[in-house]
Design goal:
With about 260 residues, the protein is α/β, with parallel strands linked by helices. Helices cover about 20% and strands about 25% of the residues. It has a single domain, classed as 5-stranded Propeller (L-arginine/glycine Amidinotransferase, Chain A), CATH 3.75.10.10. The chain is built from six helices and 15 strands. The strands form five sheets. It has a three-stranded mixed β-sheet, covered by helices on one side. The protein has a three-stranded mixed β-sheet with strand order 3-4-5, sandwiched between helices. The protein has a three-stranded mixed β-sheet with strand order 6-7-8, with helices on one face. Bound molecules: citrulline.
């Protein structure tokens, strides 16, 4: 089994009524909580359909962006690393996640430097390395601390750059299998995926780049037919999930879960 695409567990958090105050680069309208919850239910059901155990945490109204649990931790087979989100309103979300990971993992460590910032959305774990994109949320100190924490577990970190104006590195890319990455052209043009097979998202469908490969399925946001067809033509089983409300807050498929197989 490949630990970068096969998982026994996921953690999600239900969206809170305060989601209307969630961070966004551009205001494209107020997210509808009921519709977001319906999309979230479909997302969780799809993860469960693959046989995984999904822990659904209750909503945290004090943190408007807390549905986007991916940013709070990096989960590796050997242990979990609690992040230090670069958005001040999200810093407290990481401490809220820690006890849930301690319940499942033997080793839980954390980014602690007061000048270190790093969010899970900037981290792409492949079978051979951990790619971390520097961004407005992730800085050099955060990447250096992560590099030191995961080295004893045998992982190497490679720093890459997030395209200007893009929230997170993984806003623009996802792992489809151990050698294949789905990417926007603006990111793959940087050359950071040399040695991997790259499938570019269709022009105008850049928001389709944030997908997840979870066991046998690729979860793709609904509404990107040319990218869907390209992924399906490459032999993947694609499942489309409604994402209109999370998209208003710059969120996609990866942001909504932590995916992992804890080592006993
Ligand atoms: C934020 O700006 O932090 C949230 N509105 C969206 C976070 C999306 N997370 C992710 O891509 N991992």
């Amino acid at each position: 089994m490949s630990s970068s695409i096969h998982f026994t567990h996921a953690i999600t958090r239900r969206p809170a009524p305060s989601i209307t105050a969630g961070l966004r680069a551009v205001d494209t309208g107020t997210p509808d909580l009921a519709l977001m919850q319906a999309h979230h239910d479909a997302y969780v059901a799809t993860l469960r359909e693959t046989g995984a155990t999904v822990v659904e945490l209750s909503a945290l109204d004090a943190y408007p962006d807390s549905v986007f649990v991916e940013d709070t931790a990096l989960c590796l087979p050997e242990g979990a690393v609690i992040m230090r989100p670069g958005a001040p309103s999200r810093l407290g979300e990481a401490a809220e996640m820690a006890p849930h990971l301690r319940a499942l993992y033997g080793q839980v460590v954390g980014i602690t430097g007061q000048e270190s910032f790093i969010e899970g959305g900037d981290i792409l774990v492949t079978e051979r390395e951990i790619l971390v994109g520097r961004s407005a949320r992730t800085n050099a100190a955060g990447i250096a601390e992560l590099t030191a924490l995961v080295a004893p577990w045998g992982h190497t970190v490679r720093e890459v750059h997030t395209p200007p104006g893009v929230l997170h590195f993984k806003t623009d890319c996802s792992l489809l299998d151990v050698d294949t990455i789905l990417s926007t052209k603006r990111l793959s043009a940087s050359g950071c995926f040399a040695g991997y097979t790259v499938i570019d998202v269709a022009d105008g469908e850049e928001a389709a780049a944030n997908t997840i490969r979870f066991n046998d399925l690729v979860l793709l946001p609904e509404g990107f037919p040319r990218t869907r067809d390209a992924i399906a033509a490459a032999g993947f089983s694609v499942r489309e999930i409604g994402n209109s409300e999370c998209a208003k807050l710059d969120g996609g498929m990866s942001c909504l879960s932590l995916r992992f197989t804890p080592r006993a």
